[in-house]
Amino acid sequence: MIYLQAFGEKAMPKALVSLVAKVTEDSSAAHLNGNNVFLIEKLLSVRVFGTPVQLKSDPDVRVSVLRLLDALVNMGSAAAFFMRDDFVTPLRPEAAT
After folding, report:
1. By the 8 A CB rule, do 83 and 69 touch?
2. Which of 4, 7, 56, 57 is the most exposed place for a label (fewest CB within 10 A)?
């Protein structure tokens, strides 16, 4: 997670596709401990609120973001709940240009 926040910035947002595969591959949510939930919330919040068009324009990234947010909500994350609510809200036409 920390790699994606610093050195892996160039790999974003496509790296979210790989991240969701790793996080959701285990149904016991072993990868979603308290620290990882916090780091994923931090990683996503910058992008969900800052660059939503970039996340929504690629279907694979969009689905991955929604799956990550759903997993975080299932872990009890209030921040992910608000991010998901904002993320599924359609963009205003002038914001998409």
Report:
1. yes
2. 7
pLDDT at residue 46, rounded to an integer: 86
The HSE-up count of residue 37 (CA atoms within 13 Å, CB side) is 17
SS3 state at 26? coil
- 77: left (phi > 0), else alpha (psi -120 to 50), else beta? beta
Cα 44 from chain centroid (whole Å):
4
pTM: 0.76
pLDDT band at residue 17 under the 50/70/90 scheme: confident
Q: What ranges do the domains of the chain cover?
A: 33-89
CB 41 within 8 A of CB 77: yes
Average pLDDT over residues 75-83: 90
In the numeric block, which tokens belong to residue 32?
């979603």
